[in-house]
Amino acid sequence: MIARYTRTAIALHWIVALAIIANLAIGLYTVDLPLSPRKLQLFSYHKWIGISVLLLAAGRLLWRLGHPAPALPPAMPAWEKRAANASHVLLYVLFFAAPLTGWLFSSASGFQTVYLGLFPIPDLLHKDKALADALRLAHKSINYTMATLIVIHAAAALKHHFLDRDDVLRRMLPDLKLKRRERRESREGHENVPGS
Length: 196
Hints:
This protein is mainly alpha-helical. 71% of the residues lie in helices and 2% in strands.
């Protein structure tokens, strides 16, 4: 049996991953569109996902602090372990830096974020075009850095799975066999209950 992340950690990992990838795609697509109601709507979606990532990342970090990651395989070289740990720390920093710089950029641009169209998020800065330009560049750079690191992270996981043939990737995948076994045992338990 492999040492696995908790179900909560696995769920948060994949939800955050999908949200970030979707948000990167929306941001890249939207930034070059001409100003229109559609562009403004897509930027709203981008901001909503960004705030969601910020909240989920906070939850993920809190969960991780109380539930440490399983140990890396003993056969993994020390430099790979250091690289894996450093990349995870950097990813967590970027999970917070990307939405926060986006929020600051939006504030300095004079566009308040209204989360899900319902909850106004306070502006953190006064409108300032020069500062907005600097924050836009910071937000863009952080997101390109995060996209690059995500590609490296995924490539490393695939390398471990297909070349090293270790459990690094499998410990973060949902255990479908376990879920099938639990459902089967649950059905069998109900069949053995009198009156079922």
